[in-house]
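User: My notes are a mess, but here's the protein and fe (ii) ion's SMILES. Can you give me a structure?
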Amino acid sequence: MSERCTRRRFLRTSCLSAGALALPGMEWAADAWPAPELPFTFVQICDPQLGMVDYEVDKARFAQAVRQCNALTPDFAVICGDLVNGPREERIADFNRIRQQLKSPCHCVPGNHDVGLPPTPEYLARYRARIGKDYYGIEHKGFTFLMVNTQLWKSDLGQESAAHDAWFEASLKTARAAARPIFVVGHCPLFTERPDEPEGWTSLPRPVRQRLLGLFEGYGVVAMVGGHTHRLVVTDYRGIQIVHGEGTCNNVDGRPLGFRLWTVGSARPYQHQFVALEPQTPAIPERANGPR
Ligand SMILES: [Fe+2]
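Assistant: No problem, the inputs look usable. Here's the predicted complex:
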C-alpha cells in the first residue's frame, strides 16, 4: 500500500511535467503519505581513479572513503566510474579488494579510464569480466536506479551503443509502467553548464544529449548522478537534478576530497550533502608525485 502511494504521488507530479506520456487512469490519492520506506540513503562516490595522482595515496584515499561510507550505513553505494586510471590488472585487483570492504551493496559504472575513450572491445571485455556488468538496473524502495555506460553515449560503438540504447529505453518504459521514479547513475555528464552547450571533454555530443534529455523528461527521471568532472557540478534540467560530485583522489576546483550522501525522501529536490575525507591526508610523497 505504501509503495503504491509513493507511485501515485510520483505519477501525479510527473504527469504534470510530462503530460505527453501520462498514463491513463492514474490519479492522485492523498492517503498515507509519506510512505514508510522513505527516506533512504545512498552514497555517491566519484573517480577513485587508482593511479591518477599517486598510486598508494589514491588507494589510501579510496579506502578512507569506504571506511567513512561504512560508518554512515547507507542502503547502498554507487561508484560513478573512473574506478582506476587505466585498466591494468593489478589496479582492478586493488580496486576490487578495497570496494569489497564496503558493508553496503555497491554498484559501479564504467568511466573513460576504465573502458577507454572511445571504448575498446578489449577494455569492455576486461571490465565485464573483472568488475561486472557495465549497464544494468536495480530497484530500491519504489525507485529504479539505471546504471549506465555513458561512454557508449559519448562514442558511437555501433552494435554496442545500439544495444545499450535499446536496454536503456526498455528500462525506462518498464520503470514508467511500474510508476517508479528513476535515478540515472553514470560517469560523463550530459552537459555541465547549459543543455545547448557544445560538446566538450566533459559533456556528450549534442544530438545524443538532446535525445536523452527528452527521454529523461518523458519517462520520469528525477535525477542523474555521475563523476568525471573532478569538480562539483550541480545543475538541473526542467526539475531533473544533475549532480557530478567531488572525487576521492583529485579535484580541480579546490574542493576537498570526499563523496556525497543522498537522502531520498518524499519531497523533491532530494537532499545530498558532501562528506569530506578525514583526514584529507595522506599527502602525496614528493618522490612519487605522479601516476604510476
Ligand atoms: Fe572520466
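The two ends are 54 Å apart (CA to CA).
User: Great, I'll file this with my notes.
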